[in-house]
Known about the structure:
Strand content: 15-25%
Radius of gyration: 24 Å
Order of helices and strands: HEEHEEEEEEEEEEHHEEEE
Helix content: 10-25%
Structural class: alpha/beta
Amino acid sequence: MASELHEAIFMAKRERHKNLFLNCRNLNIFPVELLRDEGMQFLEHLFMKRNSLTTLPENLAQKLPNLIELYLHSNNIVIIPQAIGNLAKLQSLDLSDNALQVICPEIGQLRSLRHLRLANNQLKFLPQELGDLRELETLDVSVNLLRTLPERLHQCLSLQCLTADRNLLHCLPRLLCLLPDLNELSMAANCLTSLPLDLGRSMELQFVFVDNNAHLKGLPSYLYNKVIGCSGCGLAAQISDVKQLCLTLGDVTVPLPSEVKAIGSETDRVLPLEELACRVLHAAHSWTSKDVRFLTPFLLPKSLLDVVRWPLGHCHRCSRPMFTIIYPKLFPLRETALAGVHKRTTVSFVAYCCSSYCLRTFDLQG
């Protein structure tokens, strides 16, 4: 393995490669071959995913000054050196799935940075200097221990996608509503109790994911013409092998979603029955639509049939279809200043009762 690594770096130096792939090499320390002599002045893209690195060298920027992309996903990095701020040309930095507890303020010196991924670490706070990243377009800080987001984050005027799922956030800084280019905001599975009333006022913001916030009382009216709903199924990445419940309709056996297995808890919440029902109908319709004999049980209103046929998205964890069109109706504005502003409509759809395996029709007031 060591000889292969040495050969790969030797060839890259000799042929002045701009890309170097060192993924899955069982590296415990940063390869010294990359830092010898003048280093690799021509290297632009460095991939070092799925190794066992614990730190980065202080002279990284000095030896690799032209780095544009640095991918360090799935290592054991505990700290990044202050000298990281000297990578003047860096545009993409991926430090996801490491052991980071602190991000140094010098990260705000990466003025060319466009994509920053810090998901699945142990971060309790983020430096205010993130607001100095005026070119930043993507920020992913999901699966950490964050209770707040930096107030100065609204100064990232190019920010388009902000993902902060699975943290401990209680509120969203109102100034984030001023971000002119923000298109997607995902804060699923946090501790949100409310959202700023002007969230969604910007025409650019089109996707808002705030599912699995058990204490969220209402949604701002500006979000009602956006795509609101689930960014994930709420399940862990690794799902235990449990016996799957099924529903039998004549000659058709339809497996119920794997979420139908337990009472919800803080760590394993059960999705709304509406979402589960739509998934079951979607699966059943997909299996039976090729055989006209089985179409009778699914004579649904066209509006619902369109929902069941074409989900608005799929879970990024398990690829299950997500039917987020019904999500706003789970949050009527009863306890907000805008209560009663919108005319409520009735949505009728067919749902499976998981306790008795029977077919029932629910009329939901949304």
